[in-house]
Amino acid sequence: MLNYQLGIFNYLVKKGEILMKKYFHLLLAGILLFLLFPAPSQAKSTMIYYPVTSTDKISAGIYKSAPNGKSSAVLKEKTYTLKSTKTPPLKLADFTSADINNKIATKKDFEKDTYMNNMPIVDVQAAGSDIYFTKFLFSGSYNGSYCGGGSADILEIYKQNSKGKITKVTTDKISTNTDNAFTVSGNYIYYAKVEKNGFSKFTIIKSTLDGKKKTTLKKAVDDFWISGNKIYYTSKNALYSMNLDGKKDTKISSIKAKLYNISGCDEGNYAVSNNGISYFDYNSDAPYNYYFDFSKGTVTKIKEKTKDGNYPYVVDVDLSKKRYIGITWNDDIENSNINVYNFDGKLIKKLMTTDFSNLAIHSIDAKTGVLLYVQGEQLKQIKF
C-alpha cells in the first residue's frame, strides 16, 4: 500500500502523549481522502467531487455526489499492482528506492492483499466545467536510519473538460508530501513543484490553467497550502504567508515552536485544516497543543489531555465556540473516535467510532459543524 493508505501508522508513547514516530502531520493521510479543507469551488457547491479507493467490487477514480446523496462515477481509473525499479521516471536525491505500476490488479490480487496502488487518483478539484486531478506516477522511499525511513508518492496534474477530454496540465511533478498538492484559484493553478527531492525543497509555482505560462513564487519550501487568498508555506521550521501573487512574503512570528514537516525520517509536529494549523512544541514540556487561526492570526493554547483521559489529535478548531475536533485511537486503529471537545477538555459530542477500514474522512470543519466522509463510493455527512 502507498504512504497515504492505512497500515503506515507507527506510534510511540512519550510523556503520556501520543506522538507519531513518522508522518505526524499526515497521520490522518490514510483516512483523510482529500484534505481537511475542501477545494474553494467545492466548498460552495452542493455537488462534491472526490477520489475513491478501489476494492474488488469498486473502481478507483473520481466520483461526484451531494452529501448523503446518490454517487456517480465521473472518471474511473485502473488499479495496478506495483513493482520495484532502479530506473524511476524521475531521479530524486532523497529516494533510495522506487515502485512503479506493474500490471492491472485482478480479484485475486485484492484477495491476497497484493502490493498495489488502489488510489491512482489522489486529489480532485472542480473548477467551472473542468475537473483537475492528480495521477500516481511512482512511489519513492527513504530507507534506513533510526526511524526506518518513509515514503512519498510523485504525482502529475491532469484536467478533464466538460466533453470528457483529458490533458496533462504540466510536465512538472508534485509530491504527496505537501498539504496541498495543488489549488485552482481564479485563472491560475498553484502547486509545489518537485525539484531534486521528494520530501522537501519544493518550488511554489503559479501557472495559467493551460500550463503555458508559469511564475516561480518561492523556492526551497518544505510544505505548501492555500487558505482563502493566502499562500502558506514552511521553510527552515517556520511558517510563512504571502499573497497569491507572491507579494507580502511574511514570517508568522506568533508561532514560537519549530515546525517539522515529514522529511523521509524526521517526525512532523503539525496538521493543517481549513481554519488554521494545530501543532505541538518538541522543545517544551508544557501540557498544551497550540492552534494558529488563519483569519485572526492568533495562537491559542489547548490542553493536550481531555477530562476522559485521552490525548486527542487536534483536527480543527472553532475559536468563537471554544471547541475543537479531536481524534483518539489505539495502536491498531480499532475503535478510533472522532469527538468534539471544549477547550477545558470536556467531551461535548461523539461524532463517530470507527476502525477506518472501510471509510476515509473527506473534510472536517469545526466552524461550520460538518464532517464529510467517504464510505465505499458514497459521500456521507454528519452535522454537529
Which descriptors would you attach to this protein?
single chain; 384 residues; mainly beta; Methylamine Dehydrogenase, Chain H; four-stranded antiparallel β-sheet; 32 strands; disordered N terminus
Describe this structure in words.
With about 375 residues, this protein is mainly β. The protein has one domain: Methylamine Dehydrogenase, Chain H, CATH 2.130.10. Helices cover about 0% and strands about 50% of the residues. It is built from two helices and 32 strands. The protein has helices at about 40-45, 105-110, and strands spanning about 10-15, 15-20, 50, 60-65, 70-75, 80-85, 95-105, 115, 120-125, 130-145, 150-160, 165-170, 175, 180-185, 190-195, 200-210, 215-220, 225, 230-235, 240-245, 250, 270, 275-280, 290-295, 300-305, 315-320, 325-330, 335-340, 345-355, 360-365, 370-375, 380-384. Strands 6, 7, 8, 9, 10, 11, 12 and 13 form an eight-stranded antiparallel β-sheet that branches. Strand 24 and strand 25 form a beta hairpin. The longest helix has 5 residues, at about 105-110. The chain starts with 10 loop residues before the first strand and ends with a strand. Residues about 1-35 have low confidence and may be disordered.
